[in-house]
Design a protein that fits this description.
With 499 residues, the chain is of the alpha/beta class. It has helices at residues 8-24, 28-40, 44-63, 92-104, 153-156, 170-181, 199-209, 216-222, 227-240, 310-313, 326-329, 349-360, 400-408, 422-430, 443-447, 487-498, and strands at residues 4-7, 73-81, 84-87, 133-139, 144-151, 160-163, 189-197, 255-265, 271-277, 283-288, 316-320, 337-346, 373-375, 413-416, 434-437, 450-457, 466-480. The chain folds into three domains: 1-25 and 67-151 and 283-307, 2-Layer Sandwich (Dihydrodipicolinate Reductase, domain 2); 153-279, 60s Ribosomal Protein L30, Chain: A, CATH 3.30.1330; 310-498, Alpha-Beta Barrel (fumarase), CATH 3.20.130.10. The protein has a five-stranded mixed beta barrel with strand order 12-13-14-15-17.
Length: 499
């Protein structure tokens, strides 16, 4: 039997092209299920959030720009046929990394580099998003199959693992775990469950399963044909009954599908892994047979639903950031939509730590926080004609440890995504400050409201530098008001009671 010969350059080009493709195109199966969720959603805040995700997705596809500013950690599941030969002096992981490097440094559509070389000490950015996390499996056949994914930190950080007693309920553990996750993984998305094997096997099962084709609507229409399908439907219904909803705002759809993968395990064990997949849902399967690079077919723009402009159809309050006061914020209520205009600062983990370290040493901060609003964001680099690249919010709880210090410096409000810890909420209320959320997964849509951007501190931090944005009618939702009320508590609670 003649062996298929797959060249190194073809592998590099396949990986490069696939990563660029998934950066700006949602998969058709996810779009269809998210569109169905949008059509049936009865919670106004959740429906508006899903609408923003869908509209931002359409803009990303049209402009071929990243659908989310967190362009992900690259994970590749490679299945190499034993009758295939890779013609290269480099290893398969090295070839994949070469493809990653080219994709993330593409001048037409630069992708945000988020990987740090040393996870423990220096944590310096590798600048090109390498290395990828590559898993290689030898299988029968003459092809090289690559499942290529780019997973954001928000959803990756919510991965969970446990070892249950053999008689314990996996479903109960999953539901309780999801309930405790909060909204930092950016729902509505997909949940992957891996059961069996060993600890590391269960995690790999869950991560690979979450990339399978979304078919829950089909299962619900025809009914289950197996115990696995019964399990998936039951969990789908139970998770959505929690009322968490899109972005944790309270609503009918938290997940669009639940995936399950199992493997034989020790009689005394029941390893269980849970892997959330966020609204970006970036992954694609390509198969190489030696005939050249493998490319993906672009979707049709008719796959995206028509979304009514939420800014004109929902009640909003316009806010001038340049003249904002605590007295004005006292009138805001949780769940209210604000349209922000004026100047706001940006800052993420690294910037907050530097500000905290300077403050602890008694040094003057490089920028004044008095009367300012800060946006937790690390934007993608702009291309020609853009003030800033896609610029959606990052998970706010990572900034909780610094909030007290920032508020003491006169900060009025913060913009991010997902819930805050109760201690942080108490501090916000004590200072008569507020916390606002932008929609995670709507990075392109948000960037359209940013008209100017300049670095004002810590330029060496790259995407984590402190910028000053000039925004016009940037939509946000009041998540924590000056009295300490939180929509991430009240929103889901209302929907649970309706079940």
């Amino acid at each position: 039997m003649q062996r298929a010969e797959i060249t190194g350059p073809d592998i590099i080009e396949t990986v490069r092209a696939a990563l660029q493709f998934i950066s700006f195109y949602h998969s058709k199966d996810y779009l269809a299920h998210l569109s169905e969720a949008y059509a049936r959603e009865e919670s106004a805040p959740a429906r508006a959030a899903i609408g923003q995700i869908l509209e931002s997705s359409r803009l990303a596809a049209m402009g071929q720009r990243p659908m989310c500013q967190d362009t992900g950690m690259v994970t590749v599941f490679a299945r190499l046929g034993q009758d295939a030969h890779i013609k290269s002096d480099k290893t398969l992981p090295d070839l994949i990394n070469d493809g990653v490097r080219l994709a993330y440094l593409d001048a037409k559509n630069p992708l945000r580099a988020s990987m740090v070389a040393d996870p423990l000490f220096d944590r310096k950015n590798t600048k090109d998003n390498t290395p990828a996390v590559t898993h290689i499996e030898l299988v029968a056949g003459k092809t090289l199959e690559l499942m290529i994914a780019a997973k954001g930190g928000g959803s990756e950080n919510k991965a969970r693992f446990t070892v249950l007693n053999p008689s314990a309920s996996v479903s109960d553990w999953v539901v309780q775990t999801i309930k405790a996750l909060g909204a930092g993984w950016c729902p509505p998305g997909v949940i992957g469950i891996g059961v069996g094997g060993s600890a590391e096997k269960a995690m790999l099962l869950a991560k690979r399963a979450v990339m399978d084709r979304i078919d829950m609507s089909e299962l619900l229409r025809r009914g289950p044909n197996s115990k696995v399908e019964e399990f998936r439907i039951d969990l789908y219904n139970r998770i959505n009954a929690l009322g968490i909803g899109a972005q944790g705002l309270g609503g009918m759809t938290t997940v669009v599908d639940v995936k399950l993968a199992t493997y034989p395990t020790h009689a005394a064990s029941k390893p269980v892994a849970l892997m959330p997949q966020c609204a970006a849902n970036r992954h694609a399967l390509v198969t190489m047979d030696g005939s050249g690079p493998a490319y993906l077919n672009p979707p049709n723009l008719s796959d995206w639903p028509v979304i009514v402009d939420d800014k004109s159809t929902i009640t909003t309050r316009r806010v001038n950031l340049d003249t904002l006061t605590r007295e004005a914020m006292a009138e805001w209520e949780t769940g209210e939509t604000l349209l922000l205009s004026g100047k706001m600062l940006t800052g993420r983990d690294a910037a907050h730590k530097r500000l905290s370290d300077l403050h602890a040493l008694g040094n003057e901060l490089p920028i004044s926080l008095k009367g300012r609003v800060i946006y937790y964001v690390g934007p993608v680099d702009p291309v020609e004609g853009e003030a800033v690249g896609p610029a959606g919010p990052t998970t706010s709880t990572r900034m909780d440890a610094y909030t007290d210090m920032m508020l003491d410096q006169g900060l009025l409000s913060m913009v991010g995504k997902a819930e805050r810890g109760q201690e942080t909420i108490d501090k916000i209320a004590a200072k008569k400050a507020t916390y606002l959320i932008a929609v995670g997964g709507a990075a392109v849509l948000v960037s359209k409201d940013i008209r100017a951007s300049k670095v004002v501190a810590f330029g060496d931090l790259g995407m984590e530098a402190i910028h000053e944005f000039t925004v016009v009618d940037m939509p946000v939702t009041v998540a924590v008001d000056t009295k300490g009320n939180s929509i991430h508590t009240t929103g889901p609670s209302r929907w649970v009671k309706m079940k």
